[in-house]
Model the fold of this input.
Amino acid sequence: MLGSFLTDLLQRALTALEGTEAQYALCGGIAMILSGRDRSTRDLDVLVTVDSAQLDRLKEELRAQGFAHHDRADRHQLDDVLLLRFWLPIGTTGLSASLDVQLAQSGFSRQVVANARKESLVGHEIALATPEDLILLKLCAYRPVDRADAIELAQLHRDNLDRDYLLARARELAVADRLSEVLA
Done:
């Protein structure tokens, strides 16, 4: 399912998150894999709701787990999400993997965190974004890989999707046309 470097990245990130009171939801490529989509990824995306004190604590915990972060260089505002990028060296290869901590600032991103379902993985209880919220996140981004992810997730979970929630949120997010395309 997950390669050894992604498993290590995930375990370190989860250990850091457990050291804070941050509420979070795994999203992005790893969440897609854990939700049944066979795909590759080289990073970990975590959507978090934190106050400034919790964010400072999370940064400390991540650094204690071996992550590097340069606040001025690795801080990006993307639409309604503030992205903080952390880096983890992979052994002695000179390569690194990234952890993108996305600070939930909108009502929708906070709802994604609140809706996250709990699962056990790699010795931790994780919070994973629901298939519906992953589809909606993918519809908002809508790069070719996001479109493909949304289509496959909709197919994988077609019998269990909360279509009323999907449609209502897609309308609020102005992506209802994309949702119709994906569900077709």
